[in-house]
């Protein structure tokens, strides 16, 4: 495996490299004695070990960020933008190498790993336009000789907590937008696959991010809680599970911080009988089983309306044709899931679906992959006849499992989707403009795709979400991220041409 040596501590022949922290511009060894393995999910090979940072190390990272904020907030916009321009160029230059590291530690295919980085890179490119994104407003002569303007100013030390499934994209959603707006940042990557995230952070430092502006600590719940309660942190951004996201949002909010939590999902694809069958089914299968279903925007529920239910055999046929293998192997469509624990949970949910009466059309349990007998593989799985009360529908499976449901009308499909507690993403497949317009108007979901299976918006817009999929009113990138990472200051000014003018004392609230 090709890695960047200075990101890891020294190790003996019988141990593994230890992922370092980033504090005050230096990659440093943690003093923690609690180390967790970073495991290749296709082989169970231990790639590295990651330390659970000590309370003193978390404090040191926050202190470095607080000190750096004093000068960074006054750094000209043009300087910040030029750093982002260099950063995006370095990301492009090293994309293949980082994707290889990402695949080894996370399991997704090399092509999908590159896509992971590129979707984050798009946010970095958008950050290069902060000069226009952070503009305030101005109105002349709002009262007699009075002008008013608004300023968008950075808020201080911010923190980000990121998940295992997108170790490149999600960190790139967070720290570039935060620091380009003039804030400083403390990042806590997933302890399951921090290596590719550290590669990104290293490139950010090479691009010219000053010491202390970006810091990294590793850890579990103790570190998360320390970030959410630290008195010098003003905002916390989170992407991950609903249980953890709710905890983060509540704890950070209780301690007076801005918070945003993008959480769980149960994304539906509604297929109308007039949809283009080839395009729609290809999109459905790709969105259901890509990344082994470990996407918060994966399509995990297919809702067939009317005669479209007759297409189920074609779904199974396409799913059967997907190649399950290690992400590094050419032609792989579905890689391993992140851990043996995740695999066991997915297989248990499949079993529960069968026990509750669902029809198992394609069973991915027990799949064998030549050359990788220890891999956490689950093959594409299709369950039909699923009802809302079943656990395979009620829970986010986060694996390569597509549950299929059937309704008679579009109105029933909309009611079904809106009754689900999650509201992250949804798709409609149709050739009817009238049906599409009705759907996008009535559906209560953040990201809506019309003949688009995974409708993650480009960074000119903002990632949204509703109901149980999101806490906080602002998304993690786009214009909403600028709002989240800045505070609005309103300045009202009045200048007198003739200081000798005396209009008397005015005790009313109005400006004359």
UniProtKB/TrEMBL annotation:
<dbReference type="InterPro" id="IPR016163">
    <property type="entry name" value="Ald_DH_C"/>
</dbReference>
<keyword id="KW-0520">NAD</keyword>
<dbReference type="InterPro" id="IPR016160">
    <property type="entry name" value="Ald_DH_CS_CYS"/>
</dbReference>
<dbReference type="GO" id="GO:0006574">
    <property type="term" value="P:L-valine catabolic process"/>
</dbReference>
<dbReference type="GO" id="GO:0004491">
    <property type="term" value="F:methylmalonate-semialdehyde dehydrogenase (acylating, NAD) activity"/>
</dbReference>
<keyword id="KW-0560">Oxidoreductase</keyword>
<dbReference type="Pfam" id="PF00171">
    <property type="entry name" value="Aldedh"/>
</dbReference>
<dbReference type="GO" id="GO:0006210">
    <property type="term" value="P:thymine catabolic process"/>
</dbReference>
<dbReference type="InterPro" id="IPR016161">
    <property type="entry name" value="Ald_DH/histidinol_DH"/>
</dbReference>
<comment type="similarity">
    <text>Belongs to the aldehyde dehydrogenase family.</text>
</comment>
<protein>
    <recommendedName>
        <fullName>methylmalonate-semialdehyde dehydrogenase (CoA acylating)</fullName>
        <ecNumber>1.2.1.27</ecNumber>
    </recommendedName>
</protein>
<dbReference type="InterPro" id="IPR016162">
    <property type="entry name" value="Ald_DH_N"/>
</dbReference>
<feature type="domain" description="Aldehyde dehydrogenase">
    <location>
        <begin position="27"/>
        <end position="491"/>
    </location>
</feature>
<dbReference type="InterPro" id="IPR015590">
    <property type="entry name" value="Aldehyde_DH_dom"/>
</dbReference>
<dbReference type="InterPro" id="IPR010061">
    <property type="entry name" value="MeMal-semiAld_DH"/>
</dbReference>
């Amino acid at each position: 495996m090709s890695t960047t040596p200075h990101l890891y501590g020294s190790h003996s022949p019988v141990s593994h490299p230890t992922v370092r922290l980033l504090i005050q511009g230096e990659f440093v060894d943690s003093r923690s004695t609690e180390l967790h393995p970073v495991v290749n999910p296709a082989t169970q090979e231990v790639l590295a070990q990651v330390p659970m940072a000590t309370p003193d190390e978390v404090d040191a990272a926050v202190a470095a960020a607080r000190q750096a904020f004093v000068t960074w907030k006054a750094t000209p916009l043009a300087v910040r933008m030029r750093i982002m321009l260099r950063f995006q160029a370095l990301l492009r230059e090293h994309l293949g190498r980082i994707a290889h590291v990402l695949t080894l530690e996370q399991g997704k295919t090399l092509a999908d790993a590159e896509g992971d980085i590129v979707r984050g890179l798009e946010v970095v490119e958008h950050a290069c336009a902060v000069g226009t994104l952070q503009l305030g407003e101005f109105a002349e002569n709002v009262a007699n000789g009075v002008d008013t303007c608004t300023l968008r100013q950075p808020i201080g030390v911010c923190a980000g907590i990121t998940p295992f499934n997108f170790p490149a994209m999600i960190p790139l959603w967070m720290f570039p937008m935060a620091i380009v707006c003039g804030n400083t940042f403390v990042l806590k990557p997933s302890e399951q696959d921090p290596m590719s995230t550290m590669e990104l952070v290293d490139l950010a430092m090479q691009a010219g991010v000053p010491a202390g502006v970006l810091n990294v600590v590793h850890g579990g719940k103790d570190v998360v809680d320390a970030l959410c309660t630290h008195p010098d942190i003003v905002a916390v951004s989170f992407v991950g599970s609903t249980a953890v996201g709710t905890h983060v949002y509540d704890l950070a909010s209780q301690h007076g911080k801005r918070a945003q939590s993008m959480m769980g999902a149960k994304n539906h694809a509604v297929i109308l009988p007039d949809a283009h069958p080839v395009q729609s089914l290809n999109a459905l299968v790709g969105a259901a089983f890509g990344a082994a279903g470990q996407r918060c925007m994966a399509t995990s529920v297919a809702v067939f309306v009317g005669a479209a239910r007759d297409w189920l055999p074609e779904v199974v046929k396409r799913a059967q044709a997907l190649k399950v293998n290690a992400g590094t192997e050419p032609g792989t469509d579905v890689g391993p899931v992140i851990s043996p624990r995740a695999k066991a949970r997915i297989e248990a949910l499949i079993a529960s679906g069968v026990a509750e009466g669902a029809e198992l059309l394609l069973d991915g349990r027990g799949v064998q992959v030549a050359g990788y007998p220890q891999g956490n593989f689950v093959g594409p799985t299709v369950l039909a006849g699923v009802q809302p009360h079943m656990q395979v529908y009620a829970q986010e499976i986060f694996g390569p499992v597509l549950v299929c449901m059937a309704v008679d009308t579009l109105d029933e499909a909309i009611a079904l989707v809106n009754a689900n507690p999650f509201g992250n993403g949804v798709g409609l497949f149709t050739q009817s403009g009238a049906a599409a317009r009705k759907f996008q108007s009535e559906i209560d979901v953040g990201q809506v795709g019309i003949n688009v299976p995974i409708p993650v918006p480009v960074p000119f817009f903002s990632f949204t979400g509703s109901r149980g999929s999101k806490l906080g009113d602002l998304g993690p990138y786009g214009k909403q991220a600028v709002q989240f990472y800045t505070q609005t200051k309103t300045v009202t000014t009045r200048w007198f041409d003739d200081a000798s003018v005396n209009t008397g004392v005015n005790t009313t609230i109005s400006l004359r």
